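Help needed: design a sequence for this.
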């Protein structure tokens, strides 16, 4: 049975303060979750539904359009948070290294 993304992101144990291995494991779990999200075919399947004649009423259209806009907002926020995290991590300890 495969793990759900939610279970992978929850802490399996309370790490000791400054547990760098646990932190690395959490970052790796987040990376795997984002990879699964990127490779999911949900939006490709939605794109096939949209052109169907009579697919949606005006109210349903607004619900779907609003959901898409909301998801895009979250993607932008995740992108910005990821970039800020990397920038700040590069400054830790006075090191300023650029990612390759």
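Sure. Designed sequence:
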């Amino acid at each position: 049975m495969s793990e759900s993304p939610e279970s992978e992101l929850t802490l399996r144990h309370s790490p000791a303060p400054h547990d760098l291995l646990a932190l690395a494991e959490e970052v790796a779990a987040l990376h795997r979750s984002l990879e699964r999200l990127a490779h999911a075919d949900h939006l490709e399947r939605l794109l096939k539904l949209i052109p169907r004649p009579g697919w949606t009423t005006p109210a349903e259209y607004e619900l779907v359009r609003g959901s898409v806009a909301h998801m895009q907002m979250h993607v932008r926020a995740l992108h910005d948070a990821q970039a800020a995290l990397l920038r700040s991590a590069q400054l830790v300890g006075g090191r300023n290294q650029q990612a390759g």
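The helical segments are 5-9, 20-39, 42-49, 58-91.
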